[in-house]
Design goal:
By secondary structure, the chain is an alpha+beta fold. The protein is built from eleven helices and 14 strands. The strands form three sheets. The protein has an eight-stranded mixed beta sheet. A four-stranded antiparallel beta sheet has the order 9-10-11-12. Strands 1-2 form a two-stranded antiparallel ribbon. 50% of the residues are buried. The structure holds aspartic acid.
Length: 370
Amino acid sequence: MKKIIFLLSVLFIFSACKEENKLFDSNPQERHDDVPTIKLEDGQIIPLNKETSNAFSIIIHGGAGTILKKNMSPEMETAYKQKLEEAIRVGYEILKNGGTSLDAVTKTINVMEDSPLFNAGKGAVFTHEETNEHDASIMDGKTLNAGASAGTTTVKNPIDLAKAVMEKSPHVMLSGKGADTFAKEQGLQIVEPNYFYTERRYKSLQKIKDKEQTELDHDTKVSFYDSDIKNSKFGTVGCAALDKNGNLAAGTSTGGMTNKRWGRIGDSPIIGAGTYANNNTCAVSSTGWGEYFIRGMVAYDISALMEYKNLSLKQAAQEVIQNKLTNLGGTGGIVAIDKNGNMVAEFNTAGMYRATINDKGELSIGIYKN
Ligand code: ASP
């Protein structure tokens, strides 16, 4: 009994201080990283992080890479910011009205897939064979159910296909022609492959091919991994959300990397690498050089550090992106939300298109490092 009274009085003092602390909290994305705790009479330490949670929240990315202000026209910058805002507001409204995190993730990603600005859906990059091959995945943190598709060429919104694989098939991942057929059978929107043609992406492919031809040893590996061009290849989209029922979800959709060949599949459709969600820890969507994200199992690794080592989301994301991924030679980043609605955008590139909205409706949009 004494213990309960003591605990209640500490909780009361803590919540009284909470409002005041918020005034000094300039970065909503990174607050409450140092989870407050109290020590009971018997020495037991109890975290008070529930007290500082967002009841719901949403975070998105539109790709990471060498995104430098000096290379960006004011018009392009405005266009990206507007589209990020439009996309995240769709998910925010769903969450605010009591919708599921899965729906918020899907509908938010749809907006970015329909925009030529991002490397997903309409704006997908070209393969070496001058086709567009899409990868996507989604995961439900409540059930640990997941769905993914790889290498599709006719599905307008690949994230819808990933969700259909999760909900309407006994499988987790479908690929190629079979995945396109399943999408058609499910009544998803099918388009002619040339729907995905954009001049900008086509020119990027030609530029890389020209460079490849001038490589002395004509080593395709050199061209694919060339440090000058590799960063211009990114632009995947992703989203993580926490709904009012405490359910986390994450999803990712991409055209992959420019000049990919031989049916290359990146991290985006791989559960644990490109996407992961678990109600006990966090929801994560990755973007960057996919081969490294697969080798590092980046999204799951962040969740595992939280689950097994008790790290906060921020600590786990920093460890995986700034230490493990960087030491491996990989570039890119993640967006993530923990079970208390704390949001993190962590990347080791010059920039990452990103946006967050918390349950107070506070919007934050970022492109460059600072
Ligand atoms: N991760 C994606 C891939 O490797 C590319 C990206 O994030 O832009 O396919």
